[in-house]
Design brief:
Elements: E1 22-25, E2 28-31, H1 48-65, H2 69-81, E3 87-88, E4 92-94, E5 97-103, E6 111-116, E7 123-127, H3 128-132, E8 139-145, E9 151-157, E10 164-170, E11 175-184, E12 189-190, E13 196-202, E14 208-215, E15 224-228, E16 235-240, E17 246-252, E18 257-263, E19 272-273, E20 283-288, E21 291-296, E22 304-309, E23 319-322, E24 328-335, E25 339-346, E26 349-356, E27 361-363, E28 372-375, E29 385-391, E30 398-403, E31 408-414, E32 426-434, E33 440-448, E34 458-462, H4 480-483, E35 487-492, H5 502-506, H6 514-529, E36 538-543, H7 545-556, E37 561-567, H8 573-577, H9 585-592, H10 599-608, E38 622-627, H11 636-648, E39 655-660, H12 671-688
Parallel strand pairs: 34-35, 34-36, 36-37, 37-38, 38-39
Antiparallel strand pairs: 1-2, 3-5, 4-5, 5-6, 6-7, 8-9, 9-10, 10-11, 12-13, 13-14, 14-15, 16-17, 17-18, 18-19, 20-21, 21-22, 22-23, 24-25, 25-26, 26-27, 28-29, 29-30, 30-31, 32-33, 33-35
């Protein structure tokens, strides 16, 4: 059988003509015949040749996938059937109200509402469906009610460019005020008097570089600048402490951070610097009872927690509260009136530590040996119960309230699967597979209980491995469609994420970047050795930096993969890191290296950059997605990659590029539209990599 499986068409795939282009760096010539696919008018798309090529690829996608439309429809119906058409959040308290969101049947977006604490009618405060009407794309960003409960500041993106517009709604009338602010991102933060808010400003390269104060009823053109970040590699953020006493301005890149604070009741006071930046020092802050509580990696990669007096929080006054160690990786902390809640990872497993201000502490106990857990909606400073979100690979998303005094979990909601779900049909495992350098790599895995470990099952393997982002072993209702078709589903917790602590992240970046790619391949080979699957029966999928991972392992071990899916893949790493004018390049140098300044970094990135390492030979079936308005991975990266692969591959495997002409990095925005795209991915995998055992009932 052709490696295209059931995907065939008489239509010839598009061919982007090569055009001469070259540049020299560090005495080396870099040639790129498809450089022309970058529109000179970016971020606009005007070049007729570029538009024609992207549209031709989209038509080819439709021609190849069109004969399987009925299968996509059926699988979409199956996946949608496991979703609750009508769904709602567990209400959370904020001020004198209980807030929640809900989905109505058929709706693509959320409706936000609230009810008074003492009872009364529900008040709809924002309907995303109404805001999205007539748009191809809609994304709600920041959503902040002021302290009086009278005004809502919300931010929205209408095209996927992630340049948001802030509007202010009077919740008494339901009408928006004249105040409108464009070209921002993140959540605005209200001042104590509810008469003003802080917000971020983006520059032409999509970098949040400035914090401004907007006073309601005034012209935004006259808004006062509170902070400007001059370093092109630093992004600015704005927030507030849990007790709402302080406004916090942050600045940093992927490895260095800096915080300034100003009183919430005096936003024009000079921002107070907590600790001046120094490369490699990351810290964040919260506040309670007159002291700042600071999570810092100043003395250990896994962080420690210190406190300092609010009147002078400089490092000279830091007092250690939770000492660092090799087993407890401190991820985040939140100060409540009676205790400190710390999110951490103990030997790779999520944990929640409760530390009372008197010094005694304990860990929350959970019902399974492997799971994912994090803090949920905890808006109140006085919180005798802590809202938690919990799941495992076999346990649907669960909302707990943790009674801190009684040390008791209270189940508030368990995600329902309308078509039915029996967790007893499945087995989840935590494996360790030894990589080529002797390091043991954790793997989270779920399979049907009746799956044979004889090499016959097919495998759906995912990974990420960048920016210190862990890949949580959580639940997926959609994943059941693959499990019931004989696939085992696995997550490779490779180096580059922080799954086993900050050192795990550092072991997969810069000069050690190859560990990430080798770990993924070695996990696949280890699962083959243990009988979970066989070469050619593995479908792999990843997005963004995970798409880079797909590109590298596809170059280095194409024989392993039965199908590859790369969503908005970061595949032209070298040229992106050589272009300081692109939105994310300067802030990314600490992650990948700076090939402009360093010949060694140039050589390193060139050694793995997927686009630069495409070679003549066979490749597995490939599905690639892109977004024209994507500011994170520009559309031309996947477009160039596919064009080069088409010119060099020597087999007849199918290769598809689907570019969303009205969305960005996250793809389509509506919940049902997103599920339909997932159904397309699954059908592509089933058509190319094959289907395993039929979904018969277990005896």
């Amino acid at each position: 059988m052709s490696r295209s499986g059931r995907l065939h068409t008489a239509v010839e795939p598009p061919r982007a003509e090569p055009r001469s282009w070259s540049r020299s760096w560090h005495g080396q010539k870099l040639e790129d015949p498809w450089h022309w696919l970058r529109d000179p008018a970016y971020p606009e798309l005007r070049d007729p040749d570029v538009i024609a090529y992207l549209e031709a690829e989209n038509r080819y996608f439709e021609a190849v996938m069109g004969p399987l439309t009925s299968e996509v429809d059926a699988l979409f119906t199956e996946i949608r059937g496991r979703q609750q058409e009508e769904d709602a959040a567990v209400p959370w308290r904020e001020g004198q109200w209980y807030y929640r969101w809900r989905f109505e049947a058929e709706s693509q977006y959320r409706i936000w509402s609230r009810t008074p604490l003492n009872g009364g009618a529900e008040q709809v405060i924002l309907d995303e469906n109404a805001l999205a009407a007539g748009r191809d794309y809609f994304q709600l960003g920041g959503f902040e009610v002021d302290r009086s409960g009278r005004l809502l500041a919300y931010a929205s993106d209408g095209d996927g460019s992630e340049r948001y517009r802030i509007a202010i709604r009077d919740l008494a009338t339901g009408e928006d005020l004249p105040d409108v602010i464009d070209n921002t991102m993140g959540a605005p933060v209200w001042t104590a008097d509810s008469g003003a808010f802080l917000y971020l400003v983006l520059n032409e390269n999509w970098r949040p570089y400035e914090v401004r104060l907007h006073r309601l009823g005034t012209d935004p053109a006259g808004d006062q600048v509170l902070y400007t970040e001059a370093d092109e590699s630093f992004f600015v953020g704005v927030g507030e402490t849990q007790d709402r006493a302080w406004l916090v301005i942050t600045s940093g890149d992927h490895v260095t951070s800096e915080c300034r604070v100003l009183p919430a009741d005096d936003p024009l006071a000079p921002p107070r610097l907590v600790s001046p930046r120094r490369t490699g020092h990351e810290y964040d802050i919260d506040h309670t009872h007159g002291r700042f509580w600071i999570r810092t990696n100043d003395r250990h990669a896994n962080f420690r927690i210190v406190s300092a007096p609010a009147e002078d929080p400089a490092e000279a006054n830091w007092r250690e509260e939770i000492a660092p160690n090799e087993h407890d990786y401190l991820i985040d902390h939140t100060c409540f009136r009676d205790y400190l809640a710390v999110q951490e990872r103990r030997d790779g497993l999520d944990a929640i530590r409760i530390r009372h201000w008197q010094g005694d502490e304990h860990f929350v106990t959970f019902p399974e040996p492997a799971y994912a857990v994090g803090l949920g909606s905890n808006a109140e400073f006085d919180a005798p119960r802590l809202r938690l979100g919990y799941a495992s690979m076999v346990t649907p998303d669960t909302v707990f309230d943790y009674d801190v005094a009684a040390r008791r979990l209270i189940t508030r909601k368990v995600r329902q699967i309308p078509t039915g779900y029996d967790p007893g049909r499945y087995v989840t495992e935590r494996l360790w597979i030894t990589a080529r350098d002797g390091t043991d790599i954790p793997v989270s895995l779920v399979r049907r209980r009746d799956a044979q470990l004889d090499g016959s099952p097919r495998l759906y393997l995912t990974g990420y491995g960048a920016y210190g982002n862990a890949f949580a072993p959580s639940f997926s209702a959609a994943r059941l469609s693959l499990l019931e078709r004989g696939y085992t589903c696995a997550i490779a917790h490779i180096r580059g994420g922080d799954d086993l602590g900050y050192a795990w992240y550092e072991a997969g970046k810069l000069e050690r970047r190859w560990n990430t790619f080798n770990d993924f391949e070695d996990v696949a080979r280890g699962l083959i050795h243990r009988g979970y699957t066989a070469a050619g029966r593995i479908a792999i999928s990843g997005g963004s930096a995970g798409g880079e991972l797909m590109g590298v392992v596809m170059n280095q071990a194409p024989e392993l993969w039965g199908a590859v899916v790369a969503h908005v893949p970061f595949v032209d790493v070298l040229q992106t890191m050589l272009d300081a004018s692109l939105p994310l390049t300067p802030i990314e140098w600490p992650e990948w290296g700076n090939p402009i300044e360093s010949a060694a970094h140039f050589d390193l990135i060139r050694s793995y950059s997927p686009y630069d390492n495409v070679h003549a030979g066979p490749y597995p079936p490939l599905l690639v997605t892109a977004g024209v308005n994507d500011p994170r991975v520009t559309y031309w990266e996947p477009a160039k990659w596919v064009a080069k692969l088409r010119s060099l591959r020597t087999d007849d495997g199918v290769m598809l590029l689907k570019t969303n002409m009205s969305a960005g990095h996250g793809g389509v925005s509506g919940r049902w539209d997103a599920l339909r795209e997932l159904a397309e991915e699954y059908v592509f995998i089933l058509a190319t990599c094959g289907q395993g055992a039929s979904p018969d009932s277990l005896s």
